Amino acid sequence: MPKKLIFLCATGLAAFAATPAMAQVLLEEITVTATKREQTLQEVPVAVSVVDNQTIAQAQVFDILDLQTLVPSLRVTQLQSSANTNFLIRGFGNGANNPGIEPSVGVFIDGVYRSRSAAAISDLPNLERVEVLRGPQSTLFGKNASAGVISVVTALPDTEFGGSIEGAIGNYGLTVIKGDLQIPLSDTAGFSISGGLNQRDGYFDNLEDGEELNERDRWNIRAQLALTPTDNISLRFIGDYDELDEQCCGVANLLAGPTAPVIQAIGGNLVPNQPFAYTSFLNTNPVNTVENSGISMQADIDMGEATLTSITSFRNVARFETIDADHTSVELLDGLISNTNIDTFTQELRWSTSGDNIDFLIGAFYFDESVNYDSEAIYGSDIRLYFDLLAGGGVPGTFAGLEGALGIPVGAFFFPGTGSREFSGQDNQALSIFSQFDWHIGDRATLTLGVNYTEDDKDAFIRTQNNDLFSSLDFVFIGFAQAFAQLEAMDPGNPANGPTAQAISTNPCPPAGALPCNPLLGLQAIQVLPPFVDFPNSVESGSSDDSETTWTVRFAFDINDSWNIYASAATGFKATSWNLSRDSRSFASDLPALQSAGLFVPNWRAGTRFAEPEESTVYELGVKARFDRGALNFAVFDQSLENFQQNIFSGLGFNLINAGEQSTQGVEVDATWYPTESLQLTFGGTFMDPKYDSFPNGVGPNGPNTDLSGTQPAGIHEQSIVASATWTRDLANGMSLFLRGEYLYESDVQVVDNIPASVASREVNVFNASAGLSTEGGWDFTLWGRNITDDEYLLSAFPGVAQAGTVNGYPNAPATYGLTVRKVF
User: Fold this and answer.
1) Based on CB atoms within 10 Å of each CB, which residue in 184, 333, 694, 762 is the most buried?
2) Do 370 and 316 touch, CB atoms closer than 8 A?
3) What distances in angstroms separate CA 740 from CA 55, 84, 682, 721, 785, one per listed residue?
4) H/E element holding 237?
């Protein structure tokens, strides 16, 4: 973090603090439960951002993806399908694209942990607030909150009859309908039901068949029952179900590699080198379907000086996805298909008590989950000709000649309908015991100590069916046999011919060496589905058993009624993640044992089965202040993550690798100011200096085993700024008016580690605006626009599938706008 930047931030805060206070208090108190107790935002001594329901309504935040325009330290990225969404806080986070990985950012909705992003992206009506906690939160949240927490809180059923109905229309055929109904059943019971429909045409065109991609087609329903059977017992039951059925996501060609002419030669089309054309040619449209459901019960028992809380949940996520993996109009693959089913049970128990000097909390969190993931990559009708032309330098016939020489029926290589099918999954049980107490030292000082002990057990497996004959050939072995026969013919019986033949077999062409070369080695590059060893097996157990103790220490001091400061240190933990993708392969170190056990397969390739646990540490100094006309939060932090689990696309699967250490130092600013009674100004900024302290075996632009140590991690912006201005005015006849503008800035950064910044970088400059009119009769009219300047940037990028040198990417959404009408009754 540059010292000049810290100085400027500190100077700005001092100037803000010196602003004369005005008599009227305009800033409303915001209640949060970030520490599992109700406190105001300014009282809680942790780095937390809160987005309340009024801001959500005025900014027209339709889903959790839009939150990043309100919280600068949060980034939410949608990748190759609607359900593959990645959450990052302060640049830390992972978990998308591989069902064996849970996110480093924990998402909780009404206290219930959502273990995968697909279970957290549904539209939620009747939101009360969203809290974003930065840094590890292991001592209060029981599962994998090593980078932070997103806590979504919805409203309890009201004790009076009422509700609302909301509708929105917009460009790209947007239609949104939401509603909620509150039904009091008695003085001690209330029921609510809410639901919504969200539909929109796509903004990305498939020129091959005219279909529109990147659409919206989802609906949800949610019911709640709140009971207070006695004065000291309250119960909350929630049942929810939502569906998503969309064609997502459109992929742009960033760089057409040397294989593009071959694609065109066999009749294929693509839109080359146009990241923001929002068009492509696909022979198969992507399909995303998600069914997400769950039930939960929360019980709070007031025991006088203590409160017992229990939260029980059962959840299921079912996903089906298929994509055109080559992203052209040729049929290299007959779809890349995956089917995922996840069943999750969680149980949390907390006992808390408050005294004159000590507040104490102790709890336990149990997690039981079963993941089943089936996938397949099947060859299409054009793949043989495509690879035949590549192998023959544009002239077909290489495969037919090789098949004849090896005695294989002509046409067997890359036969349509052959390929690889994987059946994988894991069972995960975890138990966390956590405790935290606050010792109030006098009237103004509080010392907080927290500890968490977690045990996490996983049993993973992959079974494969691979009938891809070409990829199972070992060209080193074939080359050895040919070279040995050649040398035997020249000089029979010479014992030196064995090593010489081996050297020939591993000597590729070109360049020519002193020895003859093996021309077959070049064909290894097009063995796209090499077989691998199923596990568990006699060498690889497929099991992990992790345990870790994490802690929190914090000292907070109230300087006066307006100012408080805090200093904290905390650690976090995320257990072993298993690679359940197509590129889950044995470690190179396991090769001797696999050979001894008779498990070696032809064309064996090393890879990664799992990534070891992540361990995070953060040191933080913070200042919080509240004034008659505003508030500010300021934090300086130093955060590091050992064994960061990098999950990066490598062709048809993912490499799951541990970085040695990733760290960032920075400052965060969050300020609200009312210069006049009618005008609210907000500013939020995160300024960081992220880097890989140690990553000798990363996946970089030059491929695997690239030393990324000392470099800036891709996708993490050094500067992120969110600013807004909201003007409100009371009119005659009980009406009111508001005007709101938002600006999101993120500095330029390389998008992903394995694509050069010269090909894929990102800088974000997004403007959103809205204007609303409310009537005394409960009608609200809001005219809104998001990304109104059509700022263009990449969400992510990846190397082309079976197209060396080609780079593809996901462009952001263009400008959207619409009108929302809401009636409260």
Assistant:
1) 333
2) no
3) 10, 31, 11, 17, 10
4) strand 233-246
Per residue in 56-75, pLDDT tens?
Answer: 888 888 777 788 888 888 88
Detail the DSSP E strand segments found in 380-518: 419-441, 445-466
CA angle 289, 295, 301 (to 5 degrees): 155
Cis peptide before 517 (omega within 30 of 0): no
Return the amino acid letter for 516. Answer: P
Spatial separation of the C-alpha atoms in residues 338 and 529, rounded to whole Å: 16
Least Cα distance to 723 among 703, 740, 708 occurs for: 740
664 with 689: CB under 8 angstroms? yes
Give the helix, strand, coil percentages of the chain, each rounded to 5: 10, 50, 35
Question: Is the separation of the CB atoms in 68 and 744 below 8 Å?
Answer: yes
Mean pLDDT of 737-765: 95
Q: What is the 3-state secondary structure (H, E, C) of 497-540?
A: HHHHHHHHHCCCCCCCCCCCCCHHHHHHHHCCCCCCCCECCCCC
Res. 24 pLDDT band, cuts 50 70 90? very low
On the 0-12 / 13-18 / 19+ scale of CB atoms within 10 A, 514 is exposed
Structure tokens at 667: 């400052």
Q: What's the start-to-end Cα distance of the chain, in Å?
A: 51
Name every residue whose Cβ is closer than 8 Å to that of residue 658 and which is 6 or more positions away in sequence.
611, 612, 643, 644, 645, 646
The two tokens of residue 611 are 């990534």
CA 243/CA 714 separation, integer angstroms? 33
* C-alpha neighbours within 13 Å on the C-beta side of residue 693: 12
Alpha-carbon distance of 164 to 779, in angstroms, equals 10
- Tokens 């693509």 belong to 270
In the DSSP assignment, the letter for residue 467 is: -
Q: How far apart are CA 336 and CA 321, in angstroms?
A: 8
Return the amino acid letter for 796.
S
Residue 443 makes CB contacts below 8 A (sequence gap 6+) with: 558
Task: Report the candidate in 325, 424, 412 with the shortest Cα–Cα distance to residue 377.
Answer: 325
Whole-structure pTM value: 0.89
For 79-93, what is each residue's pLDDT tens digit?
777 777 778 888 887
CA atoms within 13 A on the CB side of 318: 7
Contact 142, 789 (CB under 8 A): no
Q: Are 453 and 432 in contact (CB under 8 A)?
A: yes
Q: How far apart are CA 62 and CA 174, in angstroms?
A: 12
Residue of 66, 36, 37, 39 whose CA lies nearest to 51:
66
Q: For residues 344 and 368, is the Cβ–Cβ distance under 8 A?
A: yes
> Taking a C-beta distance cutoff of 8 angstroms, is the pair 452, 458 a contact?
no
pLDDT over 90 (residue 446): yes
Whole-number pLDDT of residue 308: 96
The pair of structure tokens assigned to 200 is 């929109």
pLDDT tier at 544, thresholds 50, 70, 90:
very high
497-505 vs 475-490: helix crossing angle, rounded to 10? 140
The structure tokens listed for 53 are: 């329901």
- Evaluate if residue 289 carries a pLDDT over 70: yes
Q: What is the mean pLDDT of residues 798-817?
A: 92
* Sheet with 204-206: strands ordered across: 212-213, 204-206, 279-280
Which of 796, 816, 819 minimizes the C-alpha distance to 808?
Answer: 796
pLDDT band at 492 (very low <50, low <70, confident <90, very high): low
- Which position has the token pair 């993806």? 65
What would the two tokens of residue 670 be? 């969050």
Are 670 and 49 a contacting pair, CB within 8 Å?
Answer: yes
**DSSP class of 92:** B
Report residue 138 as tokens.
């292991």
Provide the 8-state DSSP code for 129: E
Fill in the amino acid letter for 547: S
